[in-house]
Amino acid sequence: MTGELSRSAMPGATGVVDEDLEAYETNYQTHRTGISTEECIQCYNKTAKKYEENLNPSRYRGYVIAAEAVETFYGQDKSARVLDVGAGTGFLGKELEKRGYTNIDALEPASEMLRLAAEKGVYRSLYCDVLGGSEVTIPDDTYDVLALSGSMGEGHIQCKGLAEMVRIVKPVRGNIIVSNGDCFLLLSPDQIPILVDD
Ligand SMILES: C[S@@+](CC[C@H](N)C(=O)[O-])C[C@H]1O[C@@H](n2cnc3c(N)ncnc32)[C@H](O)[C@@H]1O
């Protein structure tokens, strides 16, 4: 799967150092133009075991930024009900646990990623589901905060997922927090330039 694409064929890869290029390509392949939801989930299932090595803290800290934002809004309320949307292997859940949060659930469609997230022991409920397809099984107005790190983009959560997020977040004092590399948002034609903030 990796080694197929040259640096110039991958937007955003120009400044990537050689030793990071294979990891960059694995991540890029999951966001490539035209990728379907099913193909994206399959990619993550195949590469789940290497995910934390590929996106190690020297390369990726989207989940730290998301956790900081949760603290900005819920610094005084460590029992706030949080859904980690597109939880992957649980980087964000672990980061929130470190900061004292105790009431965290995970939603993640790639079963291999979710299995690794479950092993971290930080999530109360785990949902293996796609956000943005049919309605997920979570009732209306459930969460104080939905937190997403790196889970929007081509083949990932799309604009149409926003309506479902609004349905399950509490209407009063609820927040949806998105921490996402803007290059992945801008790669996708349907996607979310509207969310990209300079
Ligand atoms: C780059 S990973 C980020 C994982 C984790 N949030 C982190 O910060 O490490 C993107 C994750 O989004 C998930 N994902 C993709 N499409 C999704 C969808 N429609 N609904 C929910 N999660 C999705 C993928 O399976 C993958 O685990």
From TrEMBL:
What InterPro entries does its record include?
Methyltransf_25 (IPR041698), SAM-dependent_MTases_sf (IPR029063)
Protein known as: Methyltransferase domain-containing protein
Which organism encodes this protein?
Paralvinella palmiformis
* SUPFAM superfamilies reported for this sequence: S-adenosyl-L-methionine-dependent methyltransferases
Provide the Methyltransferase domain boundaries. 82-171
